[in-house]
Amino acid sequence: KQPVALPPSACPQPESDFGKRAFMRMVSHELRTPLNSIIGFAEVLTHELYGPLGAPQYTEYAGIIRDSGKKLLSLFNDVLELVRLESEPGLLRPEVEALLPHIHDAVRRHTPAAQARGVHILPGLTDSELSAHFDPRGLCLCLDHLISNAIDFTPEGRDVEITVRPEGDHVDIAVFNPGKAPDPADIPRLMRPFEQGASDYNRSREGAGLGWPVVRLAAEAMGGTFSVQSDPRHGLKATVRLRRR
Fold first, then answer.
1. Three-state DSSP class for 114?
2. Furthest-apart CA pair in the chain: how many Å?
3. CA gap 161, 178 in Å, rounded
């Protein structure tokens, strides 16, 4: 007796896929929607848009609520990106595009945070014709995480350096920060989700250990790679390598 082939819709799917989709729906709507409301109303209170709150402590507390909400929202977004990149192989659709506009956009996004910490961002790309094979959203994910991390660990008055160099059939986008850096032996472990650095390297800032895993998955989804060179005495260079064609 010949086996009967079931249509795709009738084929049972792994429970892990159902769990991931249910989790994504829950985080995306049930958590992010009320969290955005909390952040929005906290902004209204912080700026006293409808009149003074009275005691100055109220304005301070509203600011704490707003900042805490933003940290939670950032964490939820990172978790969602991680799950999407792991479960949706075709999420990113890379094409050949010029790199310069995307590098400049990333620098503009992070300049206020750098200035607040007394840090400078030095973009090292002037070739408007240099292009690579990438998805704009995927590249944005990589640059945002790497530049944000670099700003956090760069001492006041020092520079975050972004270099973009063609290397044969590839283009290397490197973000270097002086200052604290993990032991090179810890790098493979830190590429896994939710891992934290040893000693006081990661204790100088808050984080869930999702930045590098998201960057690694995004780079791989675009046909590239992600690598880190670390010297605890001098700093850290994180490099996303993309194909030129």
1. helix
2. 82
3. 9
- Unique residue bearing structure tokens 């850290």: 236
CA–CA distance, 231 with 179 (Å, rounded to integer): 9
**Mean pLDDT for all residues in the chain:** 86
Cβ distance 153 to 177 under 8 Å? yes
How far apart CA 166 and CA 169 sit, in angstroms, is: 8
Which H helix or E strand runs over 56? helix 56-87
Handedness of CA 65, 204, 28, 43 (dihedral sign): positive
- The Cα 152–Cα 158 span in angstroms is 12
C-alpha of 173 from chain center: 15
Instruction: Check if the beta carbon of residue 238 is closer than 8 Å to that of residue 142.
Output: no
pLDDT tens-place string over residues 32-76: 888 899 999 999 999 898 888 888 899 999 999 999 999 888 888
| C-alpha to C-alpha distance for 235 and 231, rounded to whole angstroms | 5
pLDDT score, position 65: 94
pLDDT at 68: 92
Give CA–CA dist 32/159, Å, rounded: 34
Cα Rg of the chain (Å, integer): 21
Distance CA 33, CA 35 (A): 5
Q: Collapse the DSSP code of 41 into the 3-class scheme (helix H, G, I; strand E, B; otherwise coil) and give the result.
A: helix
C-alpha–C-alpha distance, residues 178 and 155, integer Å: 7
Instruction: For residues 149 and 202, give the distance between their C-alpha atoms in angstroms, rounded to a whole number.
Output: 10
